[in-house]
Amino acid sequence: MNPLELIMHPVEQDLKRYQTLFNDSLCSDNPLLDMALTHLAKRQGKRMRPILVMLAARYAGRVTDKVLHAAVGVEMLHTASLVHDDIVDESDMRRGQASVNALWGAQAAVLVGDYLFSKSMQHCLLSGSLGVMELIAKLGQDLADGELLQLDLTHRDTFSDEPYYQVIDRKTAALFFTSARVGAMLGGNGEDDKAVEEMSHYAHLLGRAFQLRDDIFDFDWQNQSGKPAGNDLREGKLTLPLLYALQQAGTPEDHAMALRVRHGEATDAEIHRMVQLAHEGGGIDYATGQMNRLADEAIARLEPGRAPVEVTDALRAYAHFVVGREL
Amino acid sequence: MNPLELIMHPVEQDLKRYQTLFNDSLCSDNPLLDMALTHLAKRQGKRMRPILVMLAARYAGRVTDKVLHAAVGVEMLHTASLVHDDIVDESDMRRGQASVNALWGAQAAVLVGDYLFSKSMQHCLLSGSLGVMELIAKLGQDLADGELLQLDLTHRDTFSDEPYYQVIDRKTAALFFTSARVGAMLGGNGEDDKAVEEMSHYAHLLGRAFQLRDDIFDFDWQNQSGKPAGNDLREGKLTLPLLYALQQAGTPEDHAMALRVRHGEATDAEIHRMVQLAHEGGGIDYATGQMNRLADEAIARLEPGRAPVEVTDALRAYAHFVVGREL
Q: How far, in Å, CA of B248 to CA of A325, rounded?
């Protein structure tokens, strides 16, 4: 089996039922809304988060209808936040397709995102658990908080790691953490289950690793998506590879240049120089090391014998997949 | 007692506890978020909706801590939707203060609204009722759906009442309906209580009346807020007074002009002519009649003897206040 097959194998049937539930939710008798929802239904990604909900449920027990609804709820909240992030980042593209704001304007995109947030709540409610709802409400708060922190960072003049991890914990790791936690809570014996803690830790670490990979990727000169390196820099976002290199090897000129990047005032040549610094100043190596360490720590949280071998294997493969390792 | 005193009298102590809970929620250790929340805390309106939650709770029983949390949750969801509406309408002002998007940009306003949505969920969860959560999730969906329908209407070329009522039911009446329903559910004996149905009907009718008053107000040449008449028209929104006049007294030229208003292509003189038509074509009188009928129907839902006299009196005064009557 290839890595994706290995990951999906224990939840293959569940994933089909999930997909039907998800697609059935993306329609409306409101014409403008229906167009936007149909568009979003077409551009679904690799479904990393709903798969995690289901694998965590299997790790702790089994995939019930309540688990499936929670998986739909989590993915819908994720979709809502992507629609809103595209407004914040003024992105025209998402997953190779035009963004909602590019097609119907920021005004409609605000409302489509809001609609999806509420739809997400309705699905999560079908899990019948107030504990799940609390986690989802906290997640919604974290996602907005993380993006706002990131906006705020563009006004700061220091380059430490700490605010970076605060941002990625809220905007990325929280989504993985919540996916796994609600899956394990609903699939197993509720919140006090040891499997819930194991899955929560596993997913938090992996969520950080996922964002690190994304951030490292942005410094790749031969970016697969065809985008030039330094896309995050163009949005004023300084990520770990560059932050590390600035601290370790940055000259005062580099620091001044990095601040211009944050303020959106850097030239193309300066962006190029910053990408170069991340490589030459050891930032890429450092961030890659951190990412691999996080993935290994995540895997170490999997308790042997807790779940059927195929489930633990899938969770291990999932961790490798997140950091882009060959199996 | 003046009308507002009469309305607040049965819930005066509760309102103080509500206010503490609400204000305590509007702070954050995220600097940008905290600034925006502090700004929002300063511009609180007349608290019509939380007062309705509490009066409905008293109508059905009593105001408990759960009722107070639901009141905070409803008002926070309302605040979130206002922050997002100001992006959609590109409004610089709200309640006499600068809007969040005017002060910190649309990007931050999207995220501040999202944060408030999630905060609202957290408060509603403290009501401990999945039934309440379902109503709140449905409300969030209705609010977004109503605004999207309104955006979509700018592309239509008919002037019937039906889509108008669809929009105001979702964007305004749903908020009143949900406020009263969750209040009565939590304050009384749960969902099957007759008081819950009475309060739900009362509030739905009153919510429609509230929006009608707002829409009529916009045609007032001597608008108290100092804004020129026809503000809605400048945003491409045709409301009941004009829709009625167009149907009853509009010439083909008026119809063509009304479509230019919808498309945002009308001149100031044309806006002026449309305001005039609403008056001369009987639209203002018609809409005022409808509004008064709705308020009277709402009052007729109040069952004598169901609640202490002071509570029924307050709910009657509330209805009069909504339509701007002297008592």
A: 71
Residues 6+ apart with CB under 8 A from A125: A133, B130, B133, B134, B137
Q: CB distance from A134 to chain B under 8 Å?
A: yes
Q: What are phi and psi of A98, to 5 degrees?
A: -65, 145
d(CA B101, CA B98): 8
Contacts of A87 in chain B (CB under 8 A): 106-107, 110
pLDDT above 70 for A16: yes
* DSSP strand pairing (B93-94 vs A97-98): unpaired
| Residues of B whose CB is below 8 A from A110 | 84, 87-88, 110, 113
Test mutation, A121, A134, A156, chain B, max B CBs within 10 A: A121
A156 lies within 8 A of chain B by CB? no
Q: Please give the model's pTM, rounded to 2 decimal places.
A: 0.93
Residue B221 burial (C-beta neighbours within 10 Å; 0-12, 13-18, 19+) = exposed
ipTM: 0.92
Q: What is the pLDDT of residues B209-257, one digit of tens each?
A: 999 999 999 999 876 556 678 889 999 999 999 999 999 999 999 999 9
Average pLDDT of chain A?
Answer: 93
Query: Could you give the percent of chain B with pLDDT greater than 70?
Result: 98
**Chain B contact present for A102, CB below 8 A:** no
List the beta strands (DSSP E) in A13-78: none
**A233 touching B, CB under 8 A?**
no
Domains of chain B: 3-322 (1.10.600.10)
Mean pLDDT, chain B, rounded, equals 93
> Is any Cβ of chain A less than 8 angstroms from the Cβ of B27?
no
| Inter-residue contact A148 to B107 (CB < 8 Å) | no
Q: Chain B: nearest CA to A216, how far in angstroms? A: 25
Using CA atoms, how far residue B229 sits from A139, B167, B248, B275, B280, in Å, is: 43, 21, 21, 7, 15
**Percentage of chain B with pLDDT > 90?**
81
pLDDT (mean) for B292-314: 97
| pLDDT in the model for residue A164 | 97
Top pLDDT among A92 and B317 is at: B317
Residue of B132, B138, B141, B150 to mutate when probing chain A, most A C-beta within 10 A: B141
Within B126-157, where are the H helices? 130-153
Instruction: Count CB atoms within 10 A of the CB of residue B103.
Output: 14
Backbone conformation region of residue A97, classed left if phi is above 0, alpha if psi is from -120 to 50, else beta: beta
Question: What b/e sequence results for A10-41 when a residue is b if at least 16 CB atoms lie within 10 Å of its CB, and e otherwise?
Answer: bbeebbebbeebbeebbebebebbebbbebbe
Q: Is the pLDDT of residue B95 over 80?
A: no
C-alpha B179/C-alpha B67 separation (Å) is 10
